[in-house]
Amino acid sequence: MIAATINDTEVLVEEGSTVLQAATKYGFHIPTLCYHEGLPAYGACRMCLVEITQGASSRLESSCTRPLEQGMVIKTDTREIRGHRKMIMELLLARCPDAEVVQEMAREVGVTESRFSKLNEDCILCGLCVRACRDAIGMSAISFMSRGIKRHVDTPFSMNSDVCVGCGACARVCPTGAIRVEDYGAKRYVRYFNTELELQPCEECGRYFTTKRFFEKNKNDFVGADELYRLCDACRRRQHASMLKGPLVNVHP
Amino acid sequence: MKRIHFVPNRCIGCEECVIACGKAHDWHTRAFVEVVGGYFPIPMRCSHCDDAPCKAACPTGAIQRNEFGAIIVVKEKCIGCGTCAEVCPFGVPVIDDVTGKMIKCDLCSDILTEQEPICVQACPKDALEFVEQDEPLENRRQRMARYIKNAVEHESGLASRQM
Ligand code: SF4
Ligand code: FES
Fold first, then answer.
1. What residue owns the CA closest to ligand 1's atom 3?
2. What is the ipTM for the molecules in this complex?
3. Could you give the CA distance from residue A103 to residue A106 in angstroms, rounded to a whole number?
4. Assigned domain for B110 exists
5. Domain span at B51
6. Per-residue model confidence (pLDDT) at position A245
């Protein structure tokens, strides 16, 4: 267990916790935009800045990536921190004026207008999609491209990805809804990444229930060649119910 | 550890359990009734498997077993990839399109200290029972014998009526 001080409260948390986790556990709210509990922290948005004092030195660090250390004295909401958060939100508001999360967060920290010239992006470069694809699914179909103001997320050379499995996790973790996954006919389109995939039909009812590549991946990783997994969820349930039916219809409660 | 058991031939397919489950979970029902062979309704839900494939396959560790032995999904950790849906042999987990997170039966863990799961409470025919999973085998044998006895009496009753 590690003991530290957050906003004048003594805290005691397990080893390996980050400053953000410790603060959240003790009910201190720290705004975040690029943090997801299921993915490794990345420190992209800098909204989670806190002031950390260790001995004589004191500095601002992103709490999502900073492991808590014995004896840290942490402040989560000083005037300086609020100033930085406002600046970040002004910049993001200029970049993505239409994104709901950005507007909401700007309101939360007290920003209504941005002094900077507006762009019309929908991506805030939080990297959640990249982490979901690389660290959770293990496919690395997408990643950050270019530098500076040209930085964006894409597949290599912006081409139809041949490793993307079309699971849709990128779209589901994206806080701004920039990525959309759509199914038309026998194809799944991940438009933001110029990628299209073939869908896998259920062997029983013919409904498309996943992509061929995701199906193959899960077959290799987890389920093996069992016939059952070629069915959609509804047909799997029906299959099981009919297996139960045999022995059960002849007994009466 | 208690689990929901299904008592054969009591279910009438009214789907009260499905509706009650939906009511208790923002209308995302996690209970199903499958009709097989034309007229045999069989209620289905998560089995909370001992060796749960969804829990083993979840890439972010969002699927966990809680203190009631239920397999639950930790919303904050779920990234909505749908691997669980693909590896579950019972077709239980589904990804909710609105929140982008998986939803499944949580055995009503929030009310479990005081009440039985909502589907068990709602069933008008007592076709669902919330029973101790590791009940003595003796009891199970006796229960099964009772079912069979009833079945035999039922059959012979039918036979005598026909004569
Ligand atoms: S596309 Fe979405 S998830 Fe990916 S970096 Fe941009 S805002 Fe984040
Ligand atoms: S949440 Fe820590 S940097 Fe974005």
1. A174
2. 0.88
3. 5
4. no
5. 46-104
6. 67
